[in-house]
Design brief:
With 377 residues, the protein is an alpha+beta fold. It has 14 helices and 8 strands.
């Protein structure tokens, strides 16, 4: 959100044109309206010049644009009131100054020619005239203020009648963040659907490195729907961990949960670090750094060429052939002893991939068995 009340419903959002910029509320100085401008734009007119007008933002968020027109009308009324007020004060001050100077000169001449008694009468006359003029100015100011207030109220009512549109309901911060996340999800889904020849990319663990990197970025967008997390939560979600934080925030419901369970956490951590280093993911600074997807991450298939992905394949261990199957017990009947061992391992905090390796079964078979015993929903 923003502390600039002139921005109305404008909210800070991630800049889609640069990897570390944010669109913040700025004042245009025209009609009293504001807009969203990138924080990387400098005073020397260099840097990212991405902007989003108030009309564009209201249209994107589904707000009623009548509020903008009403704000512009109020700005014109306030400016007109200010001009009238300043002109009135200047005229009043000039009149008072002219009369005071004239009276002062008369009094000085009278003091030099007449007696003390005449001087006292002059001072009394000055005080009476000043009080009378001050009272006249106050009455004039009050009349002007009342007249302008009545005109402003009438203009507001007329504007509302002409608009004839219902006022949009106030959106909560959660709803605004959800709309931002929907926008990011739509972009990354479009990128995911783009057709590329994955045979040209290096492979690791029977999967294209482009597919693995895309899964990491898609999972980041999914878990960021409610709040932002650090790299540890992202890695645990991808590996199918069942620790307390994953269960508490219901991250096991995201589509990418456990999608990279065939990789160990160290390998996934290398993948996340590579994406951060290449600016596909932005990691904030501070005591609790969190992850944000960048514009390059939302359009990753346009930037991840086969040549660039070779460095990632080398980091993960190079191109490999098909791995040997470690699910020797797949399809076998569960014994009572194996069921008891499964319950003990899950209660001790082991992840589903770890249990699957120990039982030589697939992750789906382990989850199905846990659901049957009522240990998972």
């Amino acid at each position: 959100m923003t502390s600039n009340l002139r921005g109305k419903k404008l909210s800070v959002m991630k800049c889609p044109d640069c990897y570390d910029g944010y669109l913040i509320v700025k004042s245009s100085g025209i009609n009293g309206t504001c807009f969203l401008g990138c924080s990387n734009y400098k005073n020397n007119r260099q840097g990212c010049n991405k902007t989003v007008s108030m009309h564009e933002y209201y249209k994107m968020m589904g707000y009623d644009s009548a509020e903008i027109d009403e704000s512009i009308s109020q700005h014109h009324v306030r400016q007109k009131e200010k001009d009238v007020w300043e002109n009135g004060n200047v005229n009043c001050r000039n009149t008072n100054q002219h009369q005071t100077e004239k009276q002062s000169m008369n009094c000085q001449n009278a003091r030099s020619q007449k007696t003390d008694w005449q001087s006292r009468n002059c001072r009394d006359l000055d005080r009476q005239r000043t009080e009378k003029q001050s009272g006249n100015c106050q009455d004039l100011d009050q009349q002007r203020t009342e007249k302008q207030s009545v005109n402003c109220q009438g203009l507001d009512q007329q504007t509302k009648r002409q608009s004839g549109k219902p006022q949009a309901a106030e959106a909560s911060p959660e709803e605004i963040k959800s709309r931002h996340n929907d926008w990011e999800r739509e972009l990354i889904e479009k990128t995911k659907m783009q057709e590329v020849d994955e045979s040209r990319y290096p492979f690791y663990k029977e999967h294209s490195v482009l597919e693995i990197a895309g899964t990491v970025l898609q999972c980041l967008v999914s878990i960021s729907a409610g709040k932002y997390y650090n790299d540890t939560i992202l890695i645990r979600t991808l590996c199918g961990s069942s620790d307390q934080r994953i269960l508490q925030d219901k991250l096991y419901l995201v589509p990418e949960y456990g999608r990279l369970s065939y990789l160990d956490r160290g390998t996934v951590r290398k993948m996340v670090a590579w994406l951060i280093d290449r600016h596909y993911i932005l990691e904030t600074k501070g005591s609790y750094p969190v992850l944000h997807i960048t514009n390059e991450g939302l359009h990753y298939k346009e930037h991840m060429t086969p040549g660039k992905m070779k460095s990632l394949a080398e980091l993960l261990g190079g191109t490999e052939g098909k791995r040997k199957s470690n699910k020797a017990n797949a399809g076998e009947k569960w014994s009572e002893e194996e069921d008891q061992r499964l319950v003990r391992e899950f209660a001790s905090g082991k992840s589903i991939p770890e249990i699957a390796v120990a039982h030589k079964r697939s992750n789906g078979a382990i989850r199905a068995r846990l659901i049957k015993h009522g240990l998972m929903q």
